[in-house]
Amino acid sequence: MRKLLISAFAIVAACIMAGCGAGSVDGNSPRGVAEKSVECLKNKDFKGYVDLMYFPTDGKKAEEIEQTKTMYVSMLQNKYQEATKTQGNIKTYEFVSEEVKDTMATVKMAIAYENKNDTTDIKLKNKEGKWYLDAGK
């Protein structure tokens, strides 16, 4: 559960970055999406983070998907607030490594929080030619 929280925290931060731009890194690369997700977390842009996740339609109506996204935003916000009680907010982050295998990727990020430094693995999937955060589905 803690790893999920930390991963979610890192991914949210990367999403914030998506809103701000990823510099020279391709925004549709595993690294670009991972950095965007950590930036989203850093900026507390939970919607931006969730927008980096893939939600299959599976015949669902658009409003059902939006409800699911809203639920994820709320859950992520709560987990973020819980995590910051001990770790503090994200101060800085940097890319460490990227491993891509077929349609799956893992990006390792070093994250400096106010109260500690950590590394986290961000899992991504390629769906329909675009990289998304892996929601574990």
Describe this structure in words.
The chain has four helices and four strands; from the N terminus they run ααααββββ. It starts with a helix and ends with a strand. Strands 1-2-3-4 form a four-stranded antiparallel beta sheet. By secondary structure, it is an alpha+beta fold.
Order of adjacent strands in the largest pleated sheet: 1-2-3-4
Characterize the largest beta sheet: strand count, sense, and whether it forms a barrel.
4 strands, antiparallel
**Estimated structural class:** alpha+beta
**Number of extended strands:** 4
Mean of residue pLDDT values = 85
Helix content: 40-55%
Task: Please state the CA-atom Rg, rounded to the nearest Å.
Answer: 14 Å
**What share of residues are in beta strands?**
25-35%
Which regions contain 5 or more consecutive residues with pLDDT less than 50? 12-24
* Secondary-structure element pattern, one letter each: HHHHEEEE
What is the compact description of this entry?
The protein has about 140 residues and is α+β, with helices and mostly antiparallel strands.
Map the helices and strands.
Layout: H1 2-20, H2 30-42, H3 46-50, H4 62-87, E1 90-101, E2 104-113, E3 117-127, E4 130-133
Antiparallel strand pairs: 1-2, 2-3, 3-4
Helix pairs in contact: 1-2, 1-4
List descriptors.
137 residues, flat, alpha+beta, four-stranded antiparallel sheet, single chain, 4 helices
